[in-house]
Every structure is written in structure tokens, then in C-alpha cells.
Predict the 3D structure of the following.
Amino acid sequence: MAERAPALVVSGFLGSGKTTLVRHLLADAQARGLRVAVVSNEFGELGIDEALLGDGDEAWVELAGGCVCCKLSEELSETLQMLWERIHPDRVVIETSGVAMPFETQLTLWREPVSAWVDDDAAVVVCSAEQLAEGRDLDGTFEYQVSSADLLLLNKCDLVSEGALAAAEAALAELSPGTPILRSVHGQVPPELLFPLDPAQLRARRRADPPAVAPHVHERFSATELAFEPGLSEDEITARLQATGAVRIKGFVLTDAGPRLVQGVGRRLELGPPPASVPPALMGRVVVIRREPGHDPHPH
Ligand SMILES: [Zn+2]
């Protein structure tokens, strides 16, 4: 049974494709035999196929009557804690309503009691390329959602021209400089970008299938492992990892101040205390997922 579980906050406007993304993640987890707990604040939207949830509706909670980033933050915390104690999920997905703030929702994950068991967490904001091209509803809430995202998913890429996609990416990059923008169609994005692999998983995957993660658009991502010699400073490790331009980073390093768990998503990179028992074979190994060179999504 897992000691901790990664959590993903899925935000974005109604109609952006959040629900499709959540379904995709559930199907992926089911294929891997993983148990997912879903908390949805987008009432009645998912209309979820019970078969996708390993433990039936115990793993699926809808929170209605307010927004989980503010009014229902206490309920969100209690619900997550209940799900953890009851089913010990391998992964947690929180689908917010269209008006919620992803960062405020993440705060619940960083506070007790949830912080005691939530592992890596990330906020992905799903944006509709079609809505962006039409220039609708793009002020205020949208700007705040985009600017506080760890990852941006530019969805519905098949519905607009390449020129409109480039313009949409430029607009998102201006609102949220440095945040990775992932193109998708029907929410199809490599799950490894949203739920990172640790070095042990990367090795297991290598035996099973090639490590390249292939999304349904022309971008390609690859997962590779970097080795870090013991005794480096946190600053040195941070500088080296930031230079990789990785979308996601996860692993363990032995710094000059002791062992650290390294977790990165988009612009956010954290070196924190490691779990109680890090297998010695995993120390000094960090998995980075980045765009493959030669597949520049921004050809100019
Ligand atoms: Zn709210």
C-alpha cells in the first residue's frame, strides 16, 4: 500500500475539455491497475462511467453548493482525507469548477492533514484553443487561472488553424511566462506529464515498453534519467535541473546538506525532505520529462 499519493488539480473553463481529460486519466489508470480517487466540483459534468472507477462510487465524490477553492475548501480537505483513509488511492484528481482558482485549491493539499500524504502535486489548467481563437471570456478569472498554472493544456487543437494555435500559445505565454504549454486533442496528453514517474517506475517501464511518451499531436516527450553525484549544493542541483527545461522532474539526490526529494513541475522546482526509506539504488537519480529535440512545437 502506498505511503503517499500524487494529486492533480484540473482547472479551466466550462467547455475547455476538463472532463475529457479526467476520463482519459481514469482510463489510463485503469489500464495500469491503479486506483484513482476523483473529487469533482463540476457538478454533474463528468457523468462518469462507474466501470472506470476501481472501487465504484467510493472513489468518486462530487462536491456541490460552492467552490472548492474558497467556500468549500474545508469540505475538500475533509473529503480528500476520507478518501485517503478509506481507499488509499494511488492517484488523486480534483476537478474544479470553471471559476475556481487552481492555486487556492492547491493550498488545501499543502495544509494538514492532507499534506501528510499528498506526494507530488500539480495544477493543470485546460484551455480551449477554439475559445482562445474566438477571444471569448479571456479576462479576469481566465488570466488568473492561467497565470497560476503549473502546466497549461491547450486542448481542442484540431478545431483551429496552425496560425490560431501559435497565436493562442503566444497569448498564454504572455500571461504565464515559462509555464509549459502542452497541445492536445480530446485531452489526450501523456499521463506521465501529469503524474510523474520516479526512477523505479522508469526502469520498470523500460523493461515493458520504450520510454518515449507519444501524445496524439506532433509534440513528443521523452523521459530520461539524470545522475547526480553526492555532495552537490541545492543551488547547483537546482541550476542543473532548471537548465534542462523539463516539464516534470522527480527523483532523489544526496546534497551536501543530506538527502532530498526533488520534484518539479513547470516553473516550480522543490527540494524537500525525502520519505523515510529511499532505496539506496535510487539515490542520485532524477527522472526528467522534456520535449524531444527536433520536435519544436513553435517552428518560426
Ligand atoms: Zn473558489
User: Anything to note?
Assistant: Residues 261 and 275 are 8 Å apart (CA to CA).
